[in-house]
Amino acid sequence: MTDNEIRELKKFAARIRLETVKQIAKRGFGHIGGALSIVDALAVLYGGVMKIDPKNPDWAERDKLVMSKGHAGPALYSALALKGYFPVETLGTLNQPGTSLPSHCDHKLTPGIDVTTGSLGQGVSLAIGLALAQRMDGRGARTFLITGDGELNEGQPWEGAMFAVHHKLDGLVWFVDYNHKQLDGDTEDILDLGDLGAKFDAFGWHTQTTNGNDIEAVRTAVDKALEVSGKPSCIVLNTKKGAGVPSVENTKYNHHMVFEGEMAKESISFLESALAVLEGE
Amino acid sequence: MIIYDGTMDKEAYKNVFGRVIEQICEEDKDVVYLDCDLMNSFGTLGFWQRNKAQAINCGVAEANMMGIAAGLSAGGKKPYAHTFGPFASRRCFDQVFLSVGYGGNSVRIFGSDPGVTAAFNGGTHMPFEDMALMRAVPGSTVIDVTDSAMLESLMRQIKESCGVTYLRTTRKAYPAVYSKDHDFKIGRGEVLRDGSDLTVIACGLMVGESLKAAAALKEKGLDVRVVDMFTVKPADAELVLRCAKETGAIITAENHNVIGGLGDAVGSVLLENEACIPMKKIGVVEMFGSVGPQDYLQEYYGLTAEKIAASALEILKKK
User: Across all residues in chain B, what is the average pLDDT?
Assistant: First the structure.
């Protein structure tokens, strides 16, 4: 990757972050922590990796994304709006009556959302189904799956983990947003996931572990994952819940939180300044 | 055409399924059949060995299978998914409800061994609640299969269906009721025997029992109508109301809990249309499944022609 490409991706990530925070600030509450931790991976995917056509969201040959941690919807909506799937102004309707942007991703409501998610763990199987369908079609399209870490407390993802290896689904790339926090606190205190990379390795996946809030590191890992054949690929993203927004990072219970008033105002201006710096470079 | 004379269907329904699903997959390359390590029990093991591109064995992982089926639908495929009825419904209801139904996907779900037909597998494998659960999914279609002609016809008919389509079917056989060329229509009940004293509305296993009961009651001078309401959702409301008007009393008979199944579907139609007539629901009342031969279990839960006939005599006193 050239320095310029990296700079552009960082700017895209900064814009996604800003729009995400603005959406949640307008509503006054939301799933802000886990939305922010996955922003950099979304910037990499929508900033050049995925074959998509925002003007034709149902294009049959497109790559697909399953946001199994459906509560990160606001981050994905920001990426989609910035790519032109729908107007950026629509982001202001998050969770308002009649909105096309609910807390959790909904395929029937939002252009660019490939499948509906929200009940944790279910996106894994949906992604596998999509990857199988794409393999049957033989057009070379890929499926990208994003799960949380707390989500892996469920059994269904591990059923899927076995299945995808058995069926040699090399068109599937699974990102785990390992921000080490779930609703009730640290994953280590609730139900310790331990060495996730080793677990995926043991299941037979091609596994990488990287800094999920480092654009360049994520992009490098994705490029490598897409070269893998004969097995699915997992990228464990070590991230910070609330990444890039100090007021959220520093809130202990930041899975879903009130986000308004001074905290919101300061966070928005912090992100605007950060974006201005990137744009000035 | 109605061909019922009390004799059993010759081909076990698991073999009908295996034969027909292979034909459907041959005719349409977008059809995918999924199972959870029950292919050898459902007549599809040979098909799987011949066509692993369109037949997928998910292992003992029902939630994953239902999600994969939903994902295949999202990817433009036409999935048919099978496991035993309790696992297709209770075990992975949230995946059926959300990944398939709420997510706007279309999956044809087959739950085998409904109710007492689970026999020697016993209570853990005996679904008396599957139709109640599946009926609660918005937009769903719920069918209790009557015989092999119906199974084959409906398997083909539902290929392009939308949302959650649930069919429960025995792996063995029931009495043959319809000719192979019978014109089935989902949502349209079938009047199998006309009568004017009361109507027995049945589905699945209880269709044959109802016909037996009607024949026995005929000897007592009673003229009993028998309706096969194989589409439990959407139930044929027009037919229910016609039977209420013309016969003045209704008994429902189902191999299922009386909560949430055929009886409640028929009862709702009557209530909402102010058709206040004597009605009795025959089915399983506040009981879990248990183990034993099917005929013993039918006696145990009151799912017999004798129970229907006795209830008919009772209900006629209220007319």
Answer: 98
Judging contacts by C-beta atoms under 8 Å, the chain B residues touching residue A156 are 63-64, 67, 95
pLDDT at A1 over 90: no
Indicate the helix (H) or strand (E) that contains B201: strand B198-202
Q: Quick check: helix, strand or coil at residue B269? A: helix
- Does A138 reach chain B within 8 Å, measured CB to CB? no
Mean pLDDT for A73-92 is 98
Type of residue numbered B122? G
Query: Does residue A221 sit at the B interface (CB-CB below 8 Å)?
Result: no
Instruction: Give chain A positions within 8 Å (CB) of B64.
Output: 124-125, 128, 156, 159-160, 163
Q: Is domain B190-316 given the CATH code 3.40.50.920 in the classification?
A: yes
Question: Would you place residue A281 in the very low, low, confident or very high pLDDT band (cuts 50, 70, 90)?
Answer: confident
pLDDT, averaged across chain A: 97
Of A137, A188, A131, the C-alpha closest to A160 is: A131
**How close B76 comes to chain A (CA, Å)?**
7
Number of inter-chain CB pairs under 8 A, A vs B: 111
Burial category of A189 from C-beta neighbours within 10 Å (exposed 0-12, middle 13-18, buried 19 and up) = exposed
Q: Give me the pLDDT at residue B268, please.
A: 98
CATH for A3-280, options being 3.40.640.10, 3.30.70.580, 3.40.190.10, 3.40.50.970: 3.40.50.970
d(C-alpha B84, C-alpha B63), whole Å: 13
Domain edges within chain B: 13-169, 190-316
C-alpha separations of B265 from B19, B86, B135, B235 in Å: 32, 20, 9, 7
Q: Where are the domains of chain A?
A: 3-280
A125, A155, A159 member nearest B71 (Cβ): A125
Residue among B99, B162, B164 with most chain A CBs within 10 A, to mutate: B99
Tell me, yes or no, if A169 comes closer than 8 A to chain B by beta carbon.
no
CATH class of the domain whose range is B13-169: alpha beta
Amino acid in position A69: K
Res A17 pLDDT > 90: yes
A107 chain-B contacts, CB cut-off 8 A = 74, 103-104
Q: Return the residue of A nearest to B60 by Cα.
A: A159
For chain B, what is the largest distance between any 2 Cα atoms, rounded to a whole number of angstroms? 60
* Alpha-carbon gap: A261 to the closest alpha carbon of chain B (Å): 35
Average pLDDT of the residues in A2-27: 97
**Shortest Cα–Cα distance, B234 to chain A (Å):** 24
Give A141-164 pLDDT, tens digit per residue.
999 999 999 999 999 999 999 999
pLDDT under 70: residue ranges of chain B: none
